[in-house]
Each structure stands twice: as structure tokens, then as C-alpha cells.
Write a structure and sequence with these properties.
This protein has about 325 residues and is an alpha/beta fold. Helices cover about 35% and strands about 20% of the residues. The protein is built from eleven helices and 13 strands. This is NAD-dependent epimerase/dehydratase family protein.
Length: about 325
């Protein structure tokens, strides 16, 4: 297979490129040149947001293209139109954020969607991803378009700061504010499992939308944080102080941002952690154990000296030490 990756030097795109290279695919990466492409991939340099920025894609043909773009849909539109006659299939890594709010618990791919346009410029994330979906479908048609509606993505190369924050925090030791209940199921997708499924789906000629996240029950908050303790070797040095949602909210702890991955029961939890993924499972989705995702992310972090890269367009996640101490003190006072 000849694969064109739009992006491909950081998190999701990098995992897809590396997985394709491991399969012996011929991979071309179109990127801005800010980071090196994985060894073995050919590079085309360009900035899709600049006038004439797609010039490097004016020639060439590929079996498939994968795009992870999450900003202006018009950038997806322009690339898709340029490539439509020279590429067999287009896989767009979208998001479950495209479902209209509030998504019902257990929502499948036929749920109602937010409004979007392939011609939009800068719009909010959900509308941007929906506009990107529409842009690909308009240029490639339904039969040649694969929409990968990912949920929470974790694993090596993460540049958003969720799992890296938990690992660094637990490695530091001491009392750790652990958001409960510890048995609460959480859904996420290891970036490498996303990559493997996407490439399998492209090779098999699949089309249409697929929710891509682990099945409910794959792990829990307790399973995730216990795996962090084991991976970092924190052992007795880190004390997980499990706290019920009501107490956390009363103490002012912010779900998702201050306590990454965690959401209390309610609309937000239903939207993020209860997706119906039966379609992707039937199409071959396999999710590795949480212990493997956590251990491999920690090994990658250690290889960087313990500090993960951070996307400039995303605010860093997690409580500061001072803020965590404040919340713990408020909880102690009851």
C-alpha cells in the first residue's frame, strides 16, 4: 500500500505512520517541517494554511490518505479536492465530539450530529471536525470515505498532557487526589490501537463512520491509576486518596481539566465514557490492556527526561501541586 499521511510527526499521525512502515507500506508524510518525520517515510513540506501551501501535493498518487486535521474545515476541503482523482480512499480521524449535545448514553454512529460546513474557517472543535467529515465526503464520496470518530486518545507521544500528567504526579509520590469511584468505567483508545484499526480498515476498503474507543468495562479509574502506580514504581511512595464525586465537586475540583480523564456521573460522563463501539469491534477493533498503554507511555516519558511535549493549542492538564494541596485540605475539613 502507498499511504499519504497529512501530518504524521507528532501524536496520532506519528503512530499511524510508524504502524504503516512496520507493515512494509510506502509512506509519504506531508508536514510543515517543525518535527522530523519517522525514519523510513518520505517527506513533503508544506503549510496547508498558507497560500500555495499544498503545492508539494500537486503531483503523485497513493492508495490512501489519512488526515487528522482539527482546525478549519476548509483546509480539509482543499486537500481532499486536490487529491480526489489521485488517491483511492480518504480516512479522516474525526471525533465523537461531532455528536449533537448532549449525546445519549450508549450512542452509536447514527446519533444526531452538530452542524458543520466544509467551507468553514476557524470554528469550535466539534463543528470543525464535522466540517472536516463533510469536506472529505464531498470530495471522495461516501464509498471512499472512512470517518474514524475517536474518543479519548492515550499512549506514547501524547502531547495533550492527560496520561503524562497522571504518571508524573504519581511518580512524585505523596498523597494523590484520586477521583472516584474507583470502579467507574472509563473509555479511551490507545493511539497504537487506533492506528492499527485505521490501517486495517483502509486496507479492507471500509467506509462510513465508526466510533473508535475501548468497549465499556475495558478499564476503570482504579485500573488506570493502579497501573500508573505500578509502571512508575511509586509503590508505597504514592498514596491514592479515593474521593467520591460529590466531595470533589464541593471542594471545587474541576473534572477533566484538573483531574484528567475523570468525569462525574451525568451528561459529560455519558458523552465521553459510554460510547457504543459494537460496529468497530465487529470490524476488528482490538484494545490492548491498560497496563501496557500506561507502562509504554511511562517508558516513553522517561526517554524524554520525564517531560512530555505539549501542543501549543491545548492548555496543560492537571492540578498544580498548590491546587491539589488546597483541594485535599478542603476535603480534610469536610
Amino acid at each position: 500500500m502507498k499511504l499519504l499521511m497529512l501530518g504524521g510527526t507528532e501524536f496520532v499521525g506519528r503512530a499511524i505512520v510508524e504502524a504503516a512502515l512496520e507493515r512494509g507500506w510506502e509512506v509519504t508524510v506531508f508536514h510543515r517541517g517543525r518535527h522530523a518525520a519517522p525514519a523510513g517515510a518520505a517527506s513533503l513540506i508544506g503549510d496547508r494554511t498558507a497560500p500555495g501551501g499544498l503545492a508539494a501535493l500537486a503531483t503523485g498518487s497513493w492508495d490512501a490518505v489519512v488526515d487528522t486535521w482539527s482546525a478549519a474545515p476548509s483546509a480539509v476541503r482543499d486537500a481532499a479536492r486536490l487529491l480526489a482523482d489521485r488517491v483511492g480512499r480518504f480516512a479522516y480521524v474525526s471525533s465523537r465530539s461531532v455528536y449533537a449535545w448532549p449525546p445519549a448514553a450508549g450512542l452509536a454512529e447514527d446519533g444526531p450530529l452538530v452542524e458543520g460546513s466544509p467551507d468553514d474557517g476557524d470554528v469550535p472543535y466539534a463543528e470543525a471536525k464535522r466540517g472536516g467529515e463533510l469536506a472529505v465526503g464531498e470530495a471522495f464520496g461516501a464509498d471512499r470515505t472512512l470517518l474514524v470518530r475517536a474518543g479519548l486518545i492515550l499512549g506514547p507521544y501524547e502531547n495533550v498532557g492527560r496520561l503524562p500528567w497522571w504518571l508524573a504526579r504519581i511518580a512524585r509520590g505523596g498523597p494523590v487526589l484520586a477521583p472516584g469511584p474507583r470502579t467507574m468505567p472509563v473509555q479511551y483508545i490507545d493511539v497504537r490501537d487506533l492506528a492499527a484499526w485505521t490501517l486495517d480498515a483502509v486496507a479492507a476498503g471500509l467506509s462510513g463512520p465508526y466510533n473508535l474507543v475501548s468497549p465499556s468495562g475495558h478499564t476503570t479509574m482504579g485500573g488506570l491509576l493502579d497501573a500508573c502506580v505500578r509502571a512508575t514504581g511509586a509503590g508505597a511512595g504514592a498514596e491514592l486518596r479515593w474521593t467520591e464525586p460529590e466531595a470533589l465537586l464541593a471542594a471545587g475540583a474541576a473534572p477533566w481539566t484538573e483531574l484528567p480523564v475523570w468525569l462525574p456521573p451525568g451528561e459529560m460522563y455519558d458523552a465521553m465514557h459510554t460510547a457504543d463501539v459494537s460496529r468497530a469491534l465487529a470490524a476488528g477493533l482490538r484494545c490492548r490492556p491498560v497496563e501496557e498503554t500506561v507502562a509504554d507511555t511511562w517508558a516513553w516519558l522517561e526517554s524524554l527526561g520525564g517531560v512530555a511535549p505539549q501542543r501549543p493549542d491545548r492548555q496543560g492538564a492537571g492540578l498544580t501541586p498548590e491546587r491539589e494541596a488546597e483541594v485535599l485540605e478542603a476535603l480534610a475539613k469536610g
